[in-house]
Design brief:
InterPro entries: TPR-like_helical_dom_sf, TPR_P4H, TPR_rpt. The protein is mainly alpha-helical and 225 residues long. It is built from eleven helices and three strands.
Length: 225
Amino acid sequence: MRLQDTYRLDTADIANGKILTAKQTEGFTANDCYNIGRHAYTAEDYYHTILWMEEAKKRLPKESDSQPLLEEILEYLAFALYKQGNLKRALQTTEELTKLNPQHARARNNVKWYQDLLVKDGVKPSDHRRNIPPLDNQRPDDGMKDSERTIYEALCRNEVPVSVKATSKLYCYYKMDRPFLRLAPFKVEIVRFNPLAVLFIGVISDEEVERIQLIATPKVRIHFL
């Protein structure tokens, strides 16, 4: 999710297997999107919870036996909307859940709770479902100052220009400051000096990358369960 933010990747594009200029891969299912959203929820990252639960909801009609998952999506989505300050949308989503499953006790209780909060905020009951404002979904605070995060992310996207003078001082070299690296040195390219950014080239082969992905995938799935 940090990569999604840093590179300004659209949620739907990621779910469709489109990531920048990389070769398009197989897309995500509604359940995949739900799992990402639930992971964000457990981390109290309601910004990404909303993004991924909404994407899961969009994809669900294309899949069979979708009601049980839709109920969970709506419940997580409603609470995330509430936490992000979207009370009317939280109420609207929870009422959608109660229509889907009238026996959902927690959803019925939450409808009353959201209604009470709206009244407390000075919203008349007749206006609870009218004039719903645009979605407010702010990114979570990651501990970095806004200026630091802006610069950091721009650097990652290669959007910070480097002067001709600075570029002329950039160079490449072989990293050999460890005994093992004397036998197999790393290729290093200095991209910029202030702040220092370097690119390691050919550290692992394509075959090794595929092997790491093969080993990691089952563990990622277990983590989602």
